[in-house]
């Protein structure tokens, strides 16, 4: 059943365009079975496109279904394909190519090849479908999608969708009054010049009978080859349209979805894309992406595998960047929260990676967004902590706050990003442009001392523990040191001295709080001292991959110190690492997994931080080389993107196209080429 209850998270590909005209359009492609189950599904389809607000889905899944009239059988790409493939046109051009293979009841087959792109010149998603049947029966192709133009599930039901015509095309327009957003669905069959639907239905999601029955029920579940046509409906709607193929053994058609903030704009985007045709749109899309990649520095390693991974990672980050400047954490929904939000902490790492790759404009746009999003009002949070100068935990792309806990890496980090942009550009105007932002953040940190020479309590980077987190403290120290360098440049010597003195005091006490002897795996840094919650293993006892960030990029702990060496040695214990592939988990007994229970496996981004420490301390001199050339390329989705988590054998487990993971590949490739970690914060 096509339902809103199904929230797959394992997205294999992400696509968008690098242009202002359509930079707000983002879509994903998922190949099943997903990491969260659905072992009976083996197809691939477009899922969860967004437009204008990356946290608001325009619709959920774009299904293609094939009806065989002689066999009286309807097959859907997701539910019924026996096999599928997903890949990119190239590592620089995220045109997604899907292939679904079907077997009908008489053992005849059908192959459906679909190419998907976002128009470079208008807000439209365009799909070219090519089908080849193994028999000469009569067939009809259907397109079904769920409208989803709402911020939360509680808002569902305010939509309407209706049939209209525009520029000679039949179109279904969907709209939600609360969001002011529209999309328009249209299709054409170039070989016959057909631009009309062979039937259309607008129904209510999950309604199985009556006048409001869903398009999915009408087309797939009733399985009679006919659409009970209507011209529109209101509520939580789904949409289905038909294309009669007769007994043709092969056929090609185009499906366009145009987006807009008015009906006229959405219709114009869809119909213009169809008028141009797929070849013309693909040429513009390819030119736009090739031109954008030429504006960056390119892969620093002369190796086909590394270059492909590097370019795909950078392409993915650009796809995830909203025209307002920020990059969302990931285009997927593992649960109701979703990752389609902006975490200031993630922005900092993405800025670090963008600068390393020479994508200076993208880094500066993200920093501009951080500048705009900073809390400047006299406001306190739920813990009565004054938050002026900080950032909320995460945001919608339009700057509206979402979660609100205090994380010190999301205060010190933006100062570091400001300093890093200045170091990259050597432009003193950069110091001036963001000085007030960094100064206010540093003033908060100077005031946020616990009275004993250490930062006050805060939430750890994994957003689970309130205490003295190792990584958060290191980020705060790095932020103050970065501010001192910026203040020196501005001639503000007194403020620079205050920042350095506070940073030095906190650094002197760092090991007293953060390094614990006789802990879970021996002597090592821990998630957080004095935590307010317990877990499978106490945050006060367990090693944590985020602690390696105290070495890089925060430059607070030395890689070859006894404390860091005993921590990285604990990473060799299978309690903390994947069984079949060396990949560190966040910490031992981590239950943030699809099953909700601890699983064998790890996080590629965590392994990346651990490998930098191994490499620089000569605990394993080949660790970063192995990560860049061998390990990371084996941990990717069908389309070659790094996920959040892999299982014990190194296969994708959860939350693909996590942008932090992509950023880490870029940073480790750049570090390998430079023969030293890139992007260290100041050491004093």
Automatic annotation (TrEMBL):
Belongs to the glycosyl hydrolase 15 family. It comes from Halogranum rubrum. This is Glucoamylase (Glucan-1,4-alpha-glucosidase), GH15 family. It comes from the Archaea. GO terms for biological process: carbohydrate metabolic process. Residues 1-13 have a biased composition (Basic and acidic residues). SUPFAM superfamilies: Galactose mutarotase-like, Six-hairpin glycosidases. Residues 1-20 are annotated as: Disordered. GO terms for molecular function: carbohydrate binding; hydrolase activity, hydrolyzing O-glycosyl compounds. Residues 53-293 form the Glucodextranase N-terminal domain. Residues 309-547 form the GH15-like domain. InterPro entries: 6-hairpin_glycosidase_sf, 6hp_glycosidase-like_sf, Gal_mutarotase_sf_dom, GH-type_carb-bd, GH15-like, Glucodextranase_N. Pfam families: Glucodextran_N (PF09137), Glyco_hydro_15 (PF00723).
């Amino acid at each position: 059943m096509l339902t809103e209850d199904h929230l797959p998270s394992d997205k294999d590909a992400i696509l968008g365009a690098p242009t202002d005209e359509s930079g707000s359009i983002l879509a994903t492609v998922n190949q099943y079975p997903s990491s969260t189950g659905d072992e009976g599904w083996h197809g691939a389809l477009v899922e969860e496109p967004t437009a204008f607000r990356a946290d608001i889905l325009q619709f959920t899944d774009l299904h293609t279904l094939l009806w065989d009239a002689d066999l009286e059988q309807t097959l859907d790409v997701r539910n019924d394909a026996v096999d599928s493939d997903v890949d990119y046109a190239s590592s620089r051009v995220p045109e997604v190519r899907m292939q679904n293979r079907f077997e009908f009841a008489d053992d005849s087959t059908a192959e459906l090849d679909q190419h998907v792109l976002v128009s470079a010149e208008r807000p439209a998603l365009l799909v070219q479908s090519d089908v080849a049947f193994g028999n000469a029966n009569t067939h009809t192709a259907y397109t079904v999608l769920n409208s989803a133009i709402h911020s939360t599930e509680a808002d569902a039901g305010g939509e309407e969708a209706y049939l209209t015509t525009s520029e000679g095309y039949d179109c279904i327009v969907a709209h939600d009054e609360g969001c002011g957003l529209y999309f328009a669905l249209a299709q054409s069959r170039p070989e016959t010049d057909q631009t009309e639907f062979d039937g259309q239905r607008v129904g209510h999601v999950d309604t199985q009978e009556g006048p409001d029955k869903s398009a999915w029920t009408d087309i797939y579940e009733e399985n009679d080859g006919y659409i009970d046509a209507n011209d529109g409906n209101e509520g939580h709607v789904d949409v289905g349209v038909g294309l009669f193929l007769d007994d043709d053994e092969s056929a090609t058609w185009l499906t366009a979805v145009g987006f807009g903030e008015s009906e006229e704009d959405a219709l114009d985007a869809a119909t213009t894309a169809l008028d141009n045709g797929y070849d013309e749109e693909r040429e513009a899309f390819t030119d736009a992406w090739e031109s954008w990649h030429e504006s960056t520095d390119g892969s620093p390693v002369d190796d086909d595998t590394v270059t492909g991974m590097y370019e795909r990672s950078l392409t993915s980050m650009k796809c995830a960047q909203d025209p307002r400047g920020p990059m969302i954490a990931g285009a997927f929904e593992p649960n109701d929260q979703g990752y389609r939000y902006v975490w200031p902490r993630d922005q900092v790492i993405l800025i670090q990676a963008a600068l390393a790759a020479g994508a200076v404009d993208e880094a500066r746009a993200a920093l501009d967004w951080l500048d705009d999003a900073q809390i400047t009002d006299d406001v306190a949070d739920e813990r009565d902590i004054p938050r002026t100068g900080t950032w909320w935990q995460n945001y919608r792309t339009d700057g509206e706050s979402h979660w609100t806990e205090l994380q010190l890496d999301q205060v010190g980090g933006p100062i570091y990003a400001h300093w890093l942009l200045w170091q990259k550009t050597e432009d003193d105007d950069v110091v001036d442009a963001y000085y007030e932002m960094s100064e206010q953040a540093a003033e908060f940190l100077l005031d946020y001392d616990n009275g004993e020479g250490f930062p006050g309590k805060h939430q750890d980077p994994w957003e689970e523990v309130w205490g003295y987190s190792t990584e958060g403290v290191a980020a705060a120290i790095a932020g103050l040191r970065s501010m001192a360098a910026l203040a020196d440049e501005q001639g503000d010597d007194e403020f620079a001295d205050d920042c350095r003195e506070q940073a030095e005091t906190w650094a002197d006490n760092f090991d007293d709080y953060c390094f614990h002897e006789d802990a879970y795996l021996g002597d090592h840094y821990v998630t957080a001292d004095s935590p307010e919650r317990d877990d499978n293993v106490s945050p006060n006892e367990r090693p944590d991959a985020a602690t390696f960030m105290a070495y890089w990029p925060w430059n607070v702990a030395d890689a070859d110190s006894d404390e860091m060496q005993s921590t990285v040695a604990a990473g060799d214990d299978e309690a903390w690492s994947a069984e079949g592939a060396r990949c560190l988990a966040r910490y031992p007994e981590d239950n943030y997994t699809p099953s909700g229970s601890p699983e064998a496996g790890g996080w590629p981004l965590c392994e990346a931080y651990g490998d930098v420490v191994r490499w620089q301390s000569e605990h394993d001199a080949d660790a970063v080389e192995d990560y860049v050339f061998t390990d990371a390329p084996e941990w990717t989705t069908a389309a070659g993107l790094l996920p959040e988590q892999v299982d014990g054998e190194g296969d994708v487990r959860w939350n693909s196209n996590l942008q932090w993971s992509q950023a880490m590949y870029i940073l480790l490739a750049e570090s390998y080429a430079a023969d030293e970690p890139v992007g260290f914060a100041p050491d004093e």
